[in-house]
Here is the input.
Amino acid sequence: MKKIPVWFDCDTGVDDAIALLVLRQLDELEVIGVSTVAGNVELEKTTENTLRVLDLCKAPYPVYRGASRPMVRDQITAAAVHGEDGLGGIVLPPASRGVEAAAAWDALYQAARAYAGELVLVAVGPLTNVGLTLTKYKDFPGLLKRVVIMGGAAVGGNTSPAAEFNIFADPEAAAMLFDAGVQVAMCGLDMTMKAYLTAEELDALGDTGTRQARFARACLQRALAYELSLKLPGISLHDPSAVMYAVDDSMFKTHPAWVRVETKGKITYGKTVTDLYSDKKKEPRDHLVVVDVDREAFKARLFELFDRYRA
Ligand code: RIB
Ligand code: CA
Here is the structure.
């Protein structure tokens, strides 16, 4: 089976960390590179966190440092959810290696050229690195097979009533991507809030006993407590669900739609506006909005992928 070449862009916080552990076990993928961006916490921390988690799963992926701040707006973080360190206060051993010399946007573009027409970009943080690549390399979008993001929402928001964190943290970069002419599969809150584990299910994951599963349970505790405090049913695995969607969309529900990002609104700044639920359809309806997931199937797949760490 020919592996799918993929580039993973992240702002390693706790759910990015789980996404990396999932990525490592997805045999369908060939990870060409990983890039880091400021988001959940500052760039130095998201980069070190990424390297440490890759050590935890013995993944040799080259890592490239990206943007330390958004393209236009002021920087925001989500340390209240992920902890000041970004890994829920769980300290992994210092990274055994550093980043590659190239900047994320240069390395990502070179990978897109090397895998022209095949590379799938999976971005689970603010889209600053993508925006910078688009700015510097005009032929970049045409080289990609497709883009899968964790970000946005057809309805609601988790950082403002209108906006989800990854988009709200850099709306201008996100707008560039949705306007770039390459299909974006938006794994937004509409789906990712349904891709959750209850406290009991997360405990059961940790009880499977591998170092990776025990780390997953531990680093998610703070974010779990935050979501439970909002009367939500459990911990939303935003980034892991986007990675799993990129490999197999059969357990997800997806609709083609028009999607653009608000960058001028005062109240709606960072909102992903879609015609999905509007009788006013707009052209081109060139993106995909992922709106649902079979949670039991998602949970079973997650446990199955973590079980592979037993080997
Ligand atoms: O809104 C959730 C998203 O914002 C996730 O990617 C999380 O890691 C944060 O980046
Ligand atoms: Ca993220």
